[in-house]
Design brief:
By secondary structure, the protein is of the alpha+beta class. The chain contains 76 helices and 32 strands. It has a six-stranded antiparallel β-sheet with strand order 26-25-27-28-29-32. It has a three-stranded antiparallel β-sheet with strand order 5-4-6. Strand 18 and strand 19 form a beta hairpin. Helix 48 runs antiparallel to helix 50.
Length: 1904
């Protein structure tokens, strides 16, 4: 128990008390029993004293163990044995004493029997896999351990699996946190009733021993803690102490696991105040105890805490429950005294890294509540234990112990109170900590268990002032990083904000405290207390105001900012977590009418805080230019509580609104943000770097929008509905800086905006107005409607997966507040608006996921461009939505052209906000609309279609929302006359639309064209004044529509503002404020402007009609539709106007205008009657010309590109055709039959690099682009049909010995044991594992071109995923991956001429010819002397082929490096490629035809290369298998003479297919067809004999005798050699001479199949035995001679193939049932040769009968290779493997993976399993797949492919219910196998196309 004995402090130690006397030490059990007996007596004082004395001795804390402080090892006292021994001794004593003399294990079991386990309470640490079920959870933090989850019933629930971030505990059985229906079987029973009472004496000893034990632990903690000099505990020391204490804490932890009985004893011990007082007061005479107490006091002091010794001072300090008066006074003072800021220097040293300029600010007022922040008094062990736990920064073991106790209810309450009491201390420690992340997690691990329980939270709130403590602690924490705000008035601002560059904000250190606060606010009872407590609200608003205006951006006007600060992440996170989430938490409790009072409170204090803020930043009426902050949490609190008040609490909006002046101030900053967004998108902030764009995006992003942009827009809507509309509209245009643009003149000068930004700023202003006027999110939409609108907007932008939709739709309110939007309504809305598109699988296509796409009727009726614009983070998404909309209209035939965004009907406004619509009916807006229409019509610059679109949208909104026909009378009644009355008479849009404006006076630059005109006679200058008489008869005013005045928006707005301020101030009898802060009057000196008068003579209606003509490009194109069809006026909803372009929009507006008033209708008709004057021809300005030129140039470039592509494509096509011709000569067949000796054309190849065509020659050979790869796919074939399953229990395992590779390996090693090595290597094929597969894309290139191509790749630095040094490249034409070039052998096309002529030679002649040809050495010019380029290339490609696979897959010979090895390897390469092609065709040739592989097959070229090399080796001439097959050997006994030398392999043990390839490849190329047929015929006889031998071994003795007999009878028939019965009987009689059939004991009978052999079944057996050979041979013939394969039924495959190979005589009649033996064509008498073959076997079985039988070739019925079968549900795999331990290090690997080919469990990247720098997955991929590995990563559900030195993530074959992958199991939803995907994976594995299909490869450097 070695803590630091702190030798430094105590000087020399007193002598140590000895350990108990040896007698005692030996017999602890007896002592314990004796003490227990003593204590059981009624008078147990003596026993107690004796026990105390013993414990004193055993647990003495001052033994000088390892003095950690000095690092010295002092000798251990007493029994010696090093420092650890004494502790172990002490622990042993404790265990013994607890058990009272019995065995400790029995004692544990006894205590467990009394456990009323109603709660699970399992505690876990970070990274544990747990579950959360939202259906069962009451608190959103509810979690279950895997065991409880799987034992409960959660079918159909909304649950997910997750990896714990901070650790947690299982809530099963706790009905405060979850519904009882979700409890598991173990915790369902409320079992307290039937558990017997705990016998008193069982735990009696524990009650005596444990207090001493815990005190001892505390003493160690005190001793071990040294207050570090620099105020930072050196973690090393602390960890040392903790390591030494590990066994003690573990012992306590084990005690907690004994169950309820022991926990209640521990609770008593921990909370008993008397015990604590007695033991720890330090007042005794024990020097050690004193010293320990001193250390405790030092530790308290150094923590800035006082120990309340002096009762006088702190007597009054227990704060009374209820409102903490202190806090209220403190904070009310805080804002008032902000003037006395003093910059502290003491805290400046760490604020200076890069924030040097900005000084920290300290608040001078006492914001601390002393009792909360600085006082701690410990009254029990529990309290001091928690204190040390915090001091030591929450060691995991201690945390687990404290949490394990929680199932004890009494403890839970005590612990929660203790935790709250230490809350301020926790915050201080957290701020200092270096490991704040780990510490945060541990804190939350504890607090989430305490505060999720509503009952408990309420109790602590009432009894311990939880809310006061939390708010104060948060405030105190933020106070440490305040700086002066520079918003608005930099010099004199009194506002302070948090500094986002501080570690506290950057690292989210405040997170645990805020998260606790959010957690407790989710409980209604707690939240209500908060909302009722005015003091708390004031404090909280004060806290929120620290964030108001943080992270201020200043626009850079000159050069680019040099350092882009990334503080905005911290700012957005802080506002969301510290301000918005608590707000949503509070809002969730203000849902009903009864809660009105709460809202009034919040709104009241919020407004007060806002007023203080405006005062602090010296705000009057103009925002400072070029500044923006996105953070206005006070505005947003105010807005959201207003919204709630109207929506849910039926509060009267006006009762909670401030006066007009405050509203004007409130709207300024949110409006500033909207204008800045437009500026940022117009690239006006480009010098501030990318981060400013990041802020603009984050502000509207789905997780932030409902706490940021939505409240801002809502607040602006509220202000707009209550302020003067003219004032509001002019403010908008002024903020967006486009006032100067709104003039009738064709030229203007904008003093605040560059010309290039004008258009986008104007678009921004109009778009903002449209959003402001048409958004109804907080103005009357129900929650379901909002959800629907959000979903439609997201789906219109793009098809979405289910999870991305969930993520993109703003949750309202935030999930952490515990109110999850009803996921059921989410599902039902989703199914109403979208169709599910199931995932698509094209192999080679990218893996699709399941997507949702909008239904047609949604596009038709619900597509809302306004909502899309509001919700897009990237501007391109708006375009994407419009493109999709256009596509829909085209497809459904609703509109062919380019449509405009549709106008969508809005939800009706809530009555409280009706005032918003006055904006549409104010003269200012009408003047703007009129001006813009006019400018568009006159083609002034800088106006786009988007501007027109928005103008029309606003007009239409105005028509939709107009009051009933207003009288024109009231127009000019109100107030003094203003200049805009000279434009329009009234304010109703409907009547203003028809109002004609004749002349307009404008200010224009002197250079403008308008200046020169004379003013028309009718306007005299006094006509302006005449308009000023305010009352005039209506008629007169109509006629003298004089000149509209120069209209200045700004002046109007200032005037209005002054009026309002004067009105409000005169009411309040205050001094009139200065008109405006004169700092920003007119920016820049205005240019010389003169006034000119323009003749206009238009009204809005006439402008619209002319616009219609302009858009349609036709004169008089508009004709009022109601003249033809009066019906239109009656039923206005006409579908044809729903979708369309600008023309449609104009028509729709005119129709609506006509509907609203008869006057309008008449005027429209009149305008249309007058013939409209021609539109002036469009003058093209230089700028436009430039854009036009650009367009033209682009168009031309596009055309050029198309042309090039087309040319390239046609070349590719023609090339493909020639490539196909190489392999398919069948087109020419009919021509050639006639001619005797047709000309042989040479094959022509195109080089894809240089583009030349020509034959391949010796000097300049052409080659095929090929990919060589080692493959073990063949080796994975198995002989049983049942596919192997992935093991998911310990019992299941996959044994590899039934695979094809294993069987062939065993066979080869058996042969090598008994026979001559060189002969063995000719008797089999290798390459089942690690065989080389060659594939090509079919493109050819000159080999010299290829070399230069490789050079250029080598110099090119940007290489993606392949290594040029290894010879890898991509085909220059099709970009397929490749790594070698296979030379094309010069010469004819496929040898088509040779196979036409049937040969007349007898088989005997042919056999002789074959033998002679094989004997010749290399018969074509490849003698070493004449090295041609071709032969060099052939050699190098052969080298490549060898290097493709590992040495172990090439060298099987006993003598390494023997030429037999190479020989074997080469013909096996041919075998591998043929076998694989067969597998690609599905394992048989029934489909026939030239396979798809045929077009791209390179077997022909490969054969040439192999043959050339094989002919360099000669087979021992005395042993050529060919002779054995075709000649009778004279002396049969010769072989038996040489016993010492190993014999040759008997011919019947040879693999016939291997023999075939050896024979073919030993022939000179090109091969003649009749030689080929001859070889096949000869080999077929051997094969058939092997089949008969195998059959004879398979059947039992009786059958053999019977067959021997029946066959013998027919032996003399004429076709005896072609009768299987005769041959079988002969084979049996020959082999009976040896021992092959003998030694059949009982075990043999069991193996023999009991079926009765019928002739049919025997025939079938023989055919199946021969089929594999026939298939391979037919494929070979197809490739060598280009013959097509016939297609057939499966049952006739044998006969079709044999006749195709020429085995069947042509005259064979097909009437009989087909007999395989009829294919036989014996070159020598059958019986002689068979008896010769059998003799070899008999002579071998003499000695080795068992092996003789094993080596007989059994039928090779291999099934196609498959990957392992996976279970339906991913959870089965996950639960078994994620806990499985590594076989090497027996730990659970961090990244477990499992091989899908063989089921091996491996560690990905695991260092434990590394061998010679290769990690396990890479090693396994080499051993299992010869370099190809397919692994399922257990923790990510993803499949990873390793191919050689590269790897790629393939994707997942497990998808959730919505067809989506869940990579890394982030969502944790149940996943199900997707069979199609798995098929695609398997297909790519079998066809070796991973390299071609998957594009994203990277090197793995052997680290996987």
């Amino acid at each position: 128990m070695a803590a630091a004995a702190a030798a430094a402090v105590g000087g020399p130690q007193p002598p140590q008390p000895e350990l108990p006397a040896p007698g005692l030490a030996l017999d602890k059990a007896a002592t314990a029993a004796h003490l227990k007996a003593a204590l059981s007596r009624p008078d147990n004082r003596a026993g107690a004293e004796e026990l105390q004395a013993l414990l004193e001795r055993v647990l003495s804390a001052e033994r000088p163990l390892a003095a950690a402080a000095d690092g010295e090892e002092a000798a251990a006292a007493g029994g010696g044995g090093g420092p650890g021994a004494a502790e172990e001794e002490a622990l042993e004593w404790c265990k013994c004493l607890l058990a009272g003399g019995g065995g400790y294990d029995e004692f544990c079991a006894a205590v467990r029997a009394y456990d009323p386990a109603a709660l699970c309470g399992l505690v876990w640490t970070a990274n544990f896999v747990a579950y959360r079920c939202r259906t069962c959870g009451i608190s959103p933090c509810m979690s279950l351990c895997a065991e409880c989850f799987h034992q409960g019933d959660h079918t159909g629930h909304d649950f997910n699996m997750f990896r714990s971030q901070a650790g947690g505990a299982c809530d099963c059985g706790d009905s405060n946190v979850m519904r009882e229906s979700g409890f598991c079987k173990r915790h369902q029973i409320k079992s307290s009733s039937n558990i017997p009472c705990v016998p008193k004496d069982l735990l009696m000893m524990s009650e005596f021993v444990l207090p001493r034990f815990i005190f001892c632990l505390i003493q160690y903690l005190r001793e071990g803690y040294n207050e570090p000099a620099a105020d930072v505990p050196s973690e090393k020391d602390l960890n040392k102490v903790l390591q030494l204490l590990e066994p003690q804490i573990s012992f306590l932890e084990d005690l907690t696991k004994m169950g309820g009985a022991m926990r209640s004893v521990l609770t008593q011990v921990l909370t008993n105040q008397q015990n604590y007082k007695d033991l720890t007061s330090g007042l005794g005479e024990n020097a050690c105890a004193k010293k320990s107490h001193e250390k405790y006091l030092i530790a308290l002091k150094s923590s800035g805490l006082t120990y309340p010794e002096d009762k006088l001072v702190y007597g009054l300090q227990e704060p009374s429950a209820g409102t903490s008066t202190l806090a209220v006074q403190g904070f009310a003072g805080a804002t008032g005294t902000l003037g006395q800021l003093d910059s502290s220097d003491e805290e400046d040293q760490d604020g200076s890294q890069g924030l040097g300029k900005r000084k920290r600010v300290k608040l001078s007022s006492s914001t601390k509540d002393q009792s909360i922040m600085d006082v701690l008094k410990h009254k029990s062990f529990l309290e001091e234990l928690l204190f040390w736990t915090i001091k030591y920064e929450f060691p995991q073991k201690m945390v687990t112990f404290l949490l394990n106790m929680l199932p004890d209810q009494e403890y839970k309450v005590a612990f929660t109170k203790t935790f709250v009491q230490h809350y301020a201390f926790i915050m201080k420690t957290l701020k200092k900590s270096h490991e704040s992340d780990t510490m945060s997690n541990r804190i939350v691990h504890i607090s989430v268990q305490l505060f999720s329980n509503e009952e408990l939270a309420r109790q602590v709130t009432e009894e311990c002032q939880l809310l006061d403590i939390m708010v104060t602690v948060l405030l105190y924490m933020m106070e440490s990083c305040l700086i002066k705000s520079e918003l608005q008035d930099e010099e004199n601002s009194l506002h302070v904000v948090v500094n986002c560059g501080e570690a506290l904000l950057k690292n989210n250190t405040y997170w645990p405290l805020v998260s606790d606060f959010i957690n407790i606010l989710s409980h209604q009872s707690v939240a209500k207390r908060f909302l009722e407590d005015h003091g708390l609200l004031v404090t909280w608003m004060n806290f929120v105001s620290f964030f108001q205006g943080m992270n201020l951006n200043k626009r850079e006007l000159n050069e680019h900012v040099e350092f882009e600060s990334q503080t905005y992440y911290a700012a957005f996170a802080a506002e969301l977590e510290a301000c918005a989430q608590p707000m949503w938490g509070l809002l969730s409790h203000c849902k009903v009418r009864e809660t009105q009072e709460y809202t009034r409170n919040v709104v009241r204090y919020c407004l007060e805080a806002l007023q203080d803020w405006f005062d602090a930043i010296n705000f009057v009426d103009e925002p400072a230019p070029n500044q923006v902050t996105f953070h206005l949490p006070l505005h947003r609190y105010y807005a959201m509580f207003l919204s709630k008040a109207v929506k849910c609490q039926e509060l009267d909006l006006d009762s909670v609104l401030p006066d007009q002046e405050m509203l004007m101030k409130l709207m300024i900053h949110p409006l500033q943000i909207q204008a800045s967004l437009a500026e940022i998108h117009s690239n006006m902030w480009v010098r501030n770097g990318l981060q400013i764009k990041g802020q603009a995006m984050t502000y509207v992003q789905s997780h932030f929008c409902n706490s940021m942009i939505d409240p801002d827009i809502y607040l602006l809507q509220v202000c707009a509905s209550r302020l003067d509309p003219d004032y509001f509209i002019s403010s908008v245009f002024e903020r967006f800086k486009v006032v100067d643009l709104l003039t009738m003149a064709s030229q203007h000068q904008n003093t605040v905006l560059d010309a290039e930004h004008e258009r986008s700023m104007l678009e921004g202003a109009l778009t903002f107005l449209v959003i402001l006027l048409s958004l109804r999110l907080h103005l009357g939409m129900s929650d379901d409607e909002i959800l629907r609108a959000e979903m439609v907007a997201q789906l219109c932008m793009n098809d979405r997966t289910h999870s991305s939709l969930l993520d993109l739709i703003p949750e309202n309110p935030n999930p952490k507040s515990g109110i999850i939007p009803g996921s059921y309504s989410f599902e039902s809305v989703l199914s109403a608006v979208a169709d599910f598109k199931a995932p698509v699988f094209e192999p080679g296509g990218s893996m699709q996921q399941g997507m949702y796409t909008p239904k047609a009727e949604v596009w038709d009726q619900e597509f809302d461009p306004v909502m899309v614009i509001l919700r897009t983070v990237y501007r391109r998404d708006v375009q994407s939505a419009m493109d999709r909309y256009t596509a829909f209209l085209k497809q459904s035939g609703k509109f062919p052209g380019n449509p405009w965004p549709p106008y969508k009907k809005r939800t009706p406004l809530h009555p409280s906000y009706k005032g918003l619509m006055r904006l549409l009916h104010c003269k200012t807006l009408h003047i703007v609309l009129f001006t813009l229409l006019y400018k568009i019509l006159m083609d002034h610059q800088n106006l786009s279609e988007h501007v027109l679109c928005m103008v029309l949208y606003l007009i239409e909104l105005g028509l939709e929302n107009s009051a009933e026909e207003e009288s024109d009378e009231e127009a000019s009644v109100c107030g003094p006359e203003r200049c805009h009355d000279s434009w329009f008479p009234g304010s109703n849009l409907v009547s203003n639309m028809r109002h004609f404006i004749n002349y307009v006076r404008v200010r224009v630059p002197e250079t403008a064209p308008e200046v020169k005109r004379d003013s028309p006679a009718s306007t005299s200058s006094d006509s302006l004044s005449s308009l000023h008489s305010s009352r005039r008869p209506k008629v007169l005013q109509r006629e003298n529509s004089g000149t509209a005045q120069v209209f200045s928006l700004v002046a109007e707005r200032r005037k209005k503002f002054q009026e309002i301020i004067n009105r409000s101030s005169s009411e309040a009898n205050q001094v009139v404020r200065p008109k405006t802060s004169n700092k920003w009057s007119a920016p820049g000196s205005a240019p010389q402007l003169t006034t000119a008068i323009l003749e206009i003579k238009e009204s809005i209606l006439s402008l619209l009609i002319k616009l219609h003509h302009k858009l349609s490009g036709k004169q008089n194109s508009y004709y009022p539709p109601w003249l033809d069809d009066i019906e239109i006026l009656i039923q206005p909803e006409i579908p044809k106007y729903n979708h369309g372009d600008g023309i449609t929009a104009v028509e729709r507006i005119l129709l609506k205008a006509a509907l609203q008033s008869r006057m309008n209708k008449r005027i429209i008709e009149e305008i249309c009657r007058k013939v409209t004057p021609p539109v002036p021809p469009k003058k093209i300005t230089a700028a436009e010309k430039k854009t036009l030129d650009k367009e033209e140039r682009r168009q031309k470039a596009r055309e050029r590109q198309q042309k090039l592509l087309a040319e390239f494509a046609s070349r590719q096509k023609s090339f493909m055709e020639t490539a196909m011709d190489v392999d398919s000569p069948e087109n020419d067949i009919p021509m050639e039959i006639a001619t005797a000796e047709p000309q042989v054309s040479e094959a022509v190849y195109d080089c894809v690099i240089c583009g030349q065509s020509g034959p391949s020659s010796e000097d300049r050979p052409t080659g095929l682009v090929v990919l060589l790869q080692a493959s073990s796919v063949l080796g994975q074939c198995r002989d049983n049909i049942e596919p192997k399953k992935l093991p998911i229990t310990e019992e299941e395992q996959i044994y590899p010995w039934d695979t094809c590779a294993a069987v062939h390996d065993v066979r080869l090693s058996l042969l090598q044991r008994y026979f001559k090595d060189s002969s063995c290597l000719l008797a089999v094929s290798i390459g089942w594992e690690g065989g080389v597969y060659v594939q090509t894309c079919g493109h050819t290139l000159h080999i010299d071109c290829h070399k230069s191509y490789m050079e250029s790749l080598r110099n090119d630095q940007v290489l993606q995923g392949f290594s040029v040094d290894k010879g890898e490249f991509t085909c220059p034409l099709c970009r397929q991956f490749a790594n070698s070039v296979l030379p094309c052998y010069p010469g004819s096309n496929v040898e088509s001429n040779l196979w036409q002529r049937p040969s007349n030679k007898s088989i005997q002649d042919l056999i002789k010819e074959v033998e002679e040809l094989q004997g010749r050495p290399g018969a074509f010019p490849v003698s070493i002397s004449s090295e041609t380029n071709l032969s060099k290339e052939m050699e190098s490609v052969m080298k490549d082929i060898k290097n493709t696979t590992q040495k172990k897959y090439r060298d099987y010979s006993k003598t390494p490096g023997s030429p037999d090895n190479d020989f074997l390897f080469m013909y096996s390469v041919a075998r591998t490629n043929l076998e694989l092609e067969l597998i690609h065709r599905g394992g048989n040739l029934c489909s026939g035809g030239a396979s798809t592989a045929g077009k791209r097959s390179c077997l022909n070229q490969l054969f040439h290369v192999l043959a050339l090399h094989m002919r360099l080796y000669s087979i021992d001439s005395e042993y050529n298998p060919w002779r054995k097959l075709t000649q009778l050997v004279e002396e049969m006994n010769s072989q038996q003479g040489n016993e010492e030398q190993q014999p040759e392999v008997p011919i019947l043990y040879h693999d016939v297919t291997s023999l075939l390839l050896i024979q073919i490849l030993m022939m000179p190329q090109p091969l003649r067809k009749d030689h080929f047929t001859c070889i096949v015929k000869v080999l077929f006889t051997l094969l058939y004999t092997q089949a008969l031998v195998a059959l004879s071994v398979k059947c039992n003795e009786e059958d053999r005798l019977a067959w021997k007999h029946t066959g013998a009878l027919k032996k003399n028939a004429c076709d005896a050699e072609k009768s299987y019965e005769v041959l079988l009987s002969f084979v049996i009689s020959e082999l009976s001479k040896g021992k092959l059939y003998h030694e059949e004991g009982a075990q043999e009978c069991a193996m023999v199949s009991p079926i009765a052999w019928s002739p049919e079944s025997m025939e079938k057996y023989l055919q199946d035995f021969c089929l594999p050979f026939l298939r391979i041979t037919s494929l070979l013939q197809h490739h060598l001679f280009g013959e097509d394969l016939p297609s057939c039924q499966e049952e006739e495959e044998f006969s079709v193939l044999s006749s195709c190979l020429g085995l069947l005589p042509t005259f064979y009649q097909t009437e009989h049932p087909f007999i395989s033996a009829s294919c036989l064509d014996w070159p020598v008498p059958a019986f002689d040769i068979i008896s010769q073959w059998c003799f070899e076997i008999n002579s071998f079985t003499e000695r080795h009968a068992e092996q003789g039988k094993a080596l007989l070739i059994q039928e090779s019925r291999w099934k196609l290779p498959h990957l392992l079968q996976l279970p339906e549900n991913y959870n089965t795999i996950f639960q078994y493997y994620h806990r499985k331990t590594c076989s090497v290090c027996t730990k659970v690997p961090k990244d477990p993976a499992v091989c899908l080919v063989c089921g091996t469990f491996v560690c990905l990247k695991g260092l434990c399993c590394k061998q010679q720098s290769y990690c396990e997955c890479v090693l396994h991929s080499q051993n299992c797949g010869a370099g190809t590995g397919i692994f399922l990563l257990i923790n990510a559900s993803v499949i990873i492919i390793i191919r050689g030195h590269r790897f790629c993530l393939w994707g997942s074959v497990y998808l959730d219910a919505h067809g989506e992958e869940d990579r890394d199991l982030r969502r944790g939803k149940p996943l199900y196998i997707c069979k199609e995907r798995y098929k695609v994976l398997e297909q790519q594995w079998i066809s070796h196309t991973f390299d071609h299909i998957n594009k994203r490869w990277g090197p793995h450097y052997n680290g996987l």
